[in-house]
Amino acid sequence: MLYIYPRKRKTYNKVQTTIMSYNLLKGKKGIIFGALDEKSIAWRTALRCHEEGAQLVLTNAPVAMRMGEINKLAEAVNAPVIPADVTNMDDLKKLFEGAMAHFGGKIDFVLHSVAMGMNVRKGKHYTDLDYNFSQKTLDISSLSLHRVLKTAWDMDALNEWGSVAALTYIAAQRVFPDYNEMADAKALLESVARSFGYHYGVRKKVRVNTVSQSPVKTTAGGGVKGFDGFMSYAEKMSPLGNASADNCADYLVTLFSDLTKMVTMQNLFHDGGFSFTGVTQEVIEQMEK
Ligand code: NAI
């Protein structure tokens, strides 16, 4: 029997929405990387996965945990928190070991919601990158997905038909000048998802995808120069408007569920139609003013 019960919850949308729970993740076990505070896409996704019946383990960089915010989420979703720096293979191994011990078995899904632009942070222009920073950026934001997948692969930690998703942005395909080095980082991230997705698909029927999300005002998102202008431009250029973090969480639930078993190695646009819109009436009117 399927129980469907509506729940009211706060969102960062303009309107409060009623979300239905469909038990789409009942019995599934997942690791969620990157919940920093309640605006984080990972935070919203953890809440949503919990509503859909998943059991979770949360993780973030040890330094990010000093804020202590994550403990609130851990309580809300009844999940342990295991610190791991995504650039450290020992941390990742301990994380997967800890998660499997907690679940008493293998893992069904992983959310990679991690990024850091070192040059962006230090105010370095794209034409004047510090390459030591660049290497760190690529390690944290892109190769980390390879590190996570390799750790799971070596430990055979994922169940067959497992699902791994990472978050990306359309600057990997089209130029957004202030997105800076993160455009390159996202292009590499999407490539890792495709390449590892092939091998994991063949070996274990595990699927790996990236979700290319609309701009959202979070700690990572807000770090991009001119973010507010960027966000309202995207809003006007998207027939459905910008997708919120809660919308993204809903979409990720479907990717972790059994309803998307044959979707792998894809970069999936979750952006209210932005990626396929040339121009909108609203933007034309703005230009004519
Ligand atoms: P956020 O700042 O809440 O999340 C980024 C997370 O990465 C933080 O929890 C941070 O602690 C973690 N992190 C950084 N370095 C780490 C390390 N060495 N080890 C482990 N974790 C580390 O911001 P948001 O927006 O939720 O970002 C999540 C993902 O979504 C990122 O990949 C971001 O690029 C992507 N994204 C964000 C968009 C936005 O407009 N906010 C749009 C499209 C994609």
UniProtKB/TrEMBL annotation:
Organism encoding this protein: Pseudobacter ginsenosidimutans
Catalytic activity: a 2,3-saturated acyl-[ACP] + NAD(+) = a (2E)-enoyl-[ACP] + NADH + H(+)
Pathway recorded for this protein: Lipid metabolism; fatty acid biosynthesis
Enzyme Commission number: 1.3.1.9
Top EC class for this record: oxidoreductase
Protein name: Enoyl-[acyl-carrier-protein] reductase [NADH]
Gene3D superfamilies in the cross-refs: NAD(P)-binding Rossmann-like Domain
InterPro entries listed in its UniProt record: Enoyl-ACP_Rdtase_NADH, NAD(P)-bd_dom_sf, SDR_fam
Molecular function as annotated in GO: enoyl-[acyl-carrier-protein] reductase (NADH) activity
GO biological process: fatty acid biosynthetic process
The family this protein is said to belong to: Belongs to the short-chain dehydrogenases/reductases (SDR) family. FabI subfamily.
UniProt xrefs under SUPFAM superfamilies: NAD(P)-binding Rossmann-fold domains
Keywords, comma-separated and alphabetical: Fatty acid biosynthesis, Fatty acid metabolism, Lipid biosynthesis, Lipid metabolism, NAD, Oxidoreductase
Domain of life: Bacteria
Binding site residues for NAD(+): 34, 40-41, 85-86, 114, 186, 216-220
Catalytic residues in the record: 169 (proton acceptor), 179 (proton acceptor)
